[in-house]
Specification:
- The structure is a single chain.
- This protein is α/β, with parallel strands linked by helices and 285 residues long.
- It folds into two domains: 6-112, Rossmann fold; 118-282, Rossmann fold, CATH 3.40.50.
- Helix content is 46%, strand content 13%.
- The protein is built from nine helices and eight strands.
- The strands form two sheets. The protein has a four-stranded parallel sheet with strand order 2-1-3-4, with helices on both faces. A four-stranded parallel sheet has the order 6-5-7-8, sandwiched between helices.
- Helix 1 (17-27) links the parallel strand 1 and strand 2 (35-40).
Length: 285
C-alpha cells in the first residue's frame, strides 16, 4: 500500500528557527512519517505572502506559522480556510498563557528574539571566545571562561562549545592527550570543568572517518594508536580517571546529540555555581 504523503508548510516572518525546532521535535514522535516540509521564512510583505499562498495552493497541507503582522496573518488564514487547509499559530497558546499570568498584552513584534541587543552581542563575543580557545588554545584566557570542557580527541568538545556560544556561554575546551599534562590553571579552575567521554567503538569509528577526511586513510590503522582498540581503551580510561581525581563531572556523549550534551553542561554549570554560592555564604566573614 502506498504511503500517505503530507505537505507541511512552515511560514515565518523571521528565520524560522522556532518552527523548525517544533516540527523536528514533534515529527520524531511518529514512526517514519512521510512529511514534505515547505519552509517559507522572512515573509514580511504582501508580495512574499502571495508566493507562499501559491505554494500552499500547489501542494496543499497543514500550515504552521509565526506571523506578527495581523494583515498578513489574516490573509494566510482566510486563504487556507478557502482551501480547507488547517492552520496553527504556534506561539498563540504560549502568548495567551503569559498574557493572562503577566496581566499585559503582548506587543506585535516580529523577529523580536533577533534584535541587536546586549544578548546578541554577548553571543557574538562568546563565539569569538570559542574560536580563540578551541582545542587548548589561549590557555591564559580560561580565566575568563564560563565553562571548560575536557576530553580525548574527537569527543565532541568543539561542536558543544559552539552550541554553548550560541547561548552566550564562553566555553573553552582542552584536549586530554596521553602523556601530556593539563594546563596549570585547571589545578584551581575559575569556572566549572566538565569532562566529555565516549564509548570506545564509537570513538574509533569517528577517528577513522576523520583520518579518511584528512587523507590519512593509508595509515595502517591496526598499528596507529589513534584508532588502535587497546590504545583507545586505555586513553578513555585514563581520561576518566583524570576527571575523577579532580572531582570533575563526566558526560557520556555516545548517544547524545550536541543539544542534549549542551543542556547537561548547563545543568552542571548551575549546580557548580549553586555550590560556590553556598560555600561563599558559609565562609567566615
Amino acid at each position: 500500500m502506498a504511503q500517505h504523503t503530507t505537505n507541511l508548510h512552515l511560514v515565518s516572518d523571521s528565520t524560522g528557527e522556532t518552527l523548525n525546532s517544533i516540527a523536528r521535535a514533534t515529527l520524531t514522535r511518529f514512526e517514519a512519517p512521510h512529511v514534505i516540509q515547505h519552509r517559507w521564512f522572512l515573509v514580511r510583505s504582501r508580495f512574499q505572502l502571495e508566493q507562499v499562498l501559491e505554494g500552499i495552493q500547489a501542494e496543499p497541507g497543514p500550515v504552521m506559522f509565526t506571523l506578527a503582522d495581523k494583515s498578513l496573518r489574516h490573509s494566510l488564514e482566510e486563504f487556507a480556510g478557502r482551501l480547507g487547509v488547517t492552520t496553527l499559530s504556534v506561539l498563540d497558546p504560549v502568548l495567551e498563557l503569559l498574557q493572562k499570568e503577566i496581566g499585559e498584552a503582548a506587543k506585535e513584534k516580529r523577529a523580536a528574539q533577533h534584535v541587536l541587543d546586549a544578548d546578541y552581542f554577548r553571543r557574538i563575543d562568546a563565539m569569538h571566545y570559542v574560536l580563540a580557545h578551541d582545542d587548548g588554545q589561549g590557555v591564559a584566557g580560561i580565566q575568563e571562561a564560563d565553562v571548560c570542557l575536557v576530553g580525548v580527541s574527537r569527543s565532541s568538545k568543539t561542536p558543544t562549545c559552539f552550541y554553548l556560544a550560541n547561548r552566550g556561554i564562553k566555553a573553552a575546551n582542552v584536549p586530554i592527550v596521553p602523556g601530556a599534562a593539563l594546563p596549570d590553571i585547571l589545578d584551581h579552575p575559575p569556572c566549572p570543568v566538565i569532562g566529555l567521554t565516549i564509548e570506545v567503538g564509537a570513538l574509533i569509528e569517528i577517528r577513522r572517518h576523520r583520518l579518511k577526511l584528512i587523507g590519512a586513510g593509508g595509515v595502517r590503522q591496526d598499528t596507529n594508536d589513534y584508532v588502535d582498540l587497546d590504545s583507545v581503551k586505555a586513553e578513555i580510561l585514563a581520561a576518566r580517571r583524570l576527571c575523577t581525581s579532580h572531582g570533575w563531572p563526566v558526560i557520556d556523549v555516545t548517544r547524545r546529540s550536541i543539544e542534549e550534551t549542551a543542556a547537561t553542561v548547563l545543568q552542571l554549570m548551575e549546580a557548580w555555581h549553586a555550590r560556590s554560592t553556598k560555600a561563599s555564604a558559609a565562609a567566615p566573614a
